[in-house]
C-alpha cells in the first residue's frame, strides 16, 4: 500500500472513530448528562457485579479526576452511593433506586440498539472486525509509543 493510500485509510478510520464518539456524545446530551456520567452509567448497567472508581477509569479510559468529579455529582444528585467494601481497594459504586431507574429507562435501550446494530453482522464479520480493530490498535500503540 502506498503512503497516500495509508494516509487516506487512517484519515477515514479516524473520521469513523470520531463519528462513533459523536453518536455516544449525542446520546449523553439528549439525556442531559456529561459524557463521563454516560460511561459511568453504561459500565454500571452490568448488574452482575459492583465496580470501583479505578475499574470505571480502566474500562472507560477516562482520567481518575474526571471520573471522581462525575461520581461526586451523580452521588449528590442521588443516582449512586460510594461504599467501602471488604476485599476491595477503594469504594464500591452502587446505583440507588433512582440510578437503577435511570439505567433501565435510558441506558438499557442504548445497549439494545448496540445489540441490534451488531446483530446485522454475521459471526464471521464480527470476529473479523474485532480482530482487525484490535490489531490496528496494538500496532498504532506500538508505532506511536516510539515517536
Shape: globular
Order of helical and strand elements? HHEHHEEHH
* DSSP strand count: 3
Oligomer: single chain
Structural class assignment: mainly alpha
* Helix amount: over 70%
Neighbour order of strands in the largest sheet: 1-3-2
Give the radius of gyration: 18 Å
Beta-strand percentage range: 5-15%
Distance between the termini: 22 Å
- Mind describing the biggest β-sheet? 3 strands, antiparallel
Features:
3 strands, 6 helices, 147 residues, mainly alpha, 3-stranded antiparallel beta sheet
Question: Mind explaining what this structure looks like?
Answer:
The chain is globular. It contains 6 helices and 3 strands. A 3-stranded antiparallel β-sheet has the order 1-3-2. The protein is mainly alpha-helical and 147 residues long. 71% of the residues lie in helices and 8% in strands. Helix 3 packs across helix 4. Strand 2 and strand 3 (91-95) form a beta hairpin. 16% of the residues are buried.
Question: Could you give a quick summary of the protein structure above?
Answer:
The protein is mainly α and 147 residues long.
Topology of this protein?
Elements: H1 3-31, H2 35-44, E1 51-52, H3 53-60, H4 64-76, E2 80-84, E3 91-95, H5 97-118, H6 123-145
Antiparallel strand pairs: 1-3, 2-3
